[in-house]
Amino acid sequence: MDASTLDRLVALYPAIASIDPTDVAAAMAHDATALTVPGGAVLFDEGAPCRGFPLVLAGNVRVARGSSEGRSLELYRVGPGELCVVSMSCLVGAAPMTAHGRATDTTELVVLSPAGFARWTAHAAFRQFVFSVFSTRLADLMALAEAVAFQRLDRRLAHALLGHGQERRTTHQALADELGTVREMVTRLLKRFEGSGWVRLSRERIEILQPAALRALAEGDGRL
Questions:
Q1: Comparing C-alpha atoms, which of 4, 2, 68, 78 is closest to residue 37?
Q2: What is the pLDDT of residue 168?
Q3: Would the N or C end of the chain have less CB density within 10 A of its end CB?
Q4: Which residue positions in the chain have pLDDT lower than 50?
Q5: pTM for the structure as a whole
Q6: Domain 151-218 part of CATH 1.10.10.10
Q7: If 0-12 CB within 10 Å is exposed, 13-18 middle and 19+ buried, where does residue 4 land?
Q8: CATH superfamily, domain at 3-148
């Protein structure tokens, strides 16, 4: 693997710089594969063995869990500089994948083999980085479980944005308090609303671009 790829990795994942250069070089030469995949490409499947640890250079990976009825629940997304905790958990526990991952658009990544992952996590600083991300992601997943338990937080959020004219001036934390959830979940949903073109986000201000779409979602007739 060329030096420029390693430079990009280190820029996005600074903890790599704490690893012994010999171990970095060995992993890059023998335990890492650079990939570029198109949007929609499946990177890993539920129930399959974990074949590596993805480090995203560009693009985005949607990690979701499916049901026997064919429904899919998004758990989180992995962007440049972020880590996939499902891959991490399965590697550490030597267990099959518990979710599936699919590229949302053209995505560049380096996949570290299980042996390379073990080599790098033997270094305390990199291991601390990995587990700090694991802790953050776990908190996000707990928040997601809360939202699911309360039935369609997205509908309640859409309803909360309506009835205030063309904009609502508030913070993500204030909306979370109003809805009885956590700020991270509100932020995630607002970004999805923005990605759908329904709202425009700025500091303490949410501009309503498509109130009809929000109203349809709030009433159960629409979806993201």
A1: 78
A2: 93
A3: C
A4: none
A5: 0.62
A6: yes
A7: exposed
A8: Jelly Rolls (2.60.120.10)
